[in-house]
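Problem 12. The chain below contains 136 residues. Write out its predicted structure in token notation.
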Amino acid sequence: MGTWSGQPFGSDSASDWAYDLAEAPDWSIVREALTTVAGETEVDSDDAVIAIAAAEVVAHGLDRPTQTDAYTESVASFAQRAGRPDADLVALALDALTAATSPDSELTELWEDEDPEEWVTANATLKQALASAGPA
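Solution.
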């Protein structure tokens, strides 16, 4: 998987995607990543990884990050530049997170072959951060 942790930016794919945020002027790159999986039942693992990372970016925009480390430095800069996400984007992030972590997600299947506890906990924490943010 190219993964070193269950955190949203704990994989090569998520970290690589974060570099794209350096050039992004607004939330459109995040919205695109979330839209790819939202409402889907069978989700590709790479799409799921990026959607979870995008949901974490939304959490950063709400000042409710669940991961703050060297891997999220570009995320913090982006969130400051892009401003607070609107309620529709928060709802989309929740939908995408649900799809990316669903039983039919390829990423869920991959984590089941490993030790999924850290990943499950990280995603539950992220979901709580988004859900408890309230109206934008």
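Discussion. The first helix runs from residue 12 to 20. Students who got a different answer should revisit the alignment rule from Section 12.3.
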